[in-house]
Amino acid sequence: MPFATEQYAVDWADSYFGDGYTVTDLGPVIEPTEAEKLAARQSFGKELLNEYLIDNDLISKAWGRPFTPTETAQQAGKFLVIANGVVVTTIQELLTLGSLTQALAIMQNIVVDDIFTQERKDKYINKLSQFLNI
Fold first, then answer.
1. For residues 89 and 22, which has the higher predicted lDDT (pLDDT)?
2. How many CB atoms sit inside 10 A of residue 98's CB?
3. String of DSSP letters for the chain
4. How far apart are CA 113 and CA 74, in angstroms?
5. Which neighbouring-strand residues pair with 89?
6. What is the pLDDT of residues 16-64, one digit of tens each?
7. Which of 131, 60, 69, 58 is nearest to 101 (CA)?
8. CB-CB contact of 55 with 49 (8 Å)
């Protein structure tokens, strides 16, 4: 945690942890570049997308069968981003691109069902929110 002065850090540590702790100056905080921030968002988005796919596999195995073509189409349709009646992107593309704020906003409005349950929706929304520090 960055502090303006060493004394401020000592005072904070004393009030938070109590007496007996020492503070070490680790030097200036180096903010990541915009490219590094984007790479981190893209990596997180891909990990979340992989988790979604693994969760789908687990449901399919629990059901003892693969998803039907209708179920697959219904799930794919939930993740489309439509503007003026035209598909402009998907949540999967937004996650891969690192557009996590947009993916979160869209995901909050997805209707749940037997495959994309409220529990799964909440899990993904919480992970996105935590990553974005919302």
1. 89
2. 19
3. ---SSHHHHHHHHHHHH-TT----------PPPHHHHHHHHHHHHHHHHHHHHHHHHHHHHHHTSPPPHHHHHHHHHHTEEEETTEEEEEHHHHHHHT-HHHHHHHHTTPPP-SSS-HHHHHHHHHHHHHHHT-
4. 10
5. 81
6. 887 777 788 887 878 899 999 999 999 999 999 999 999 999 999 999 9
7. 131
8. no
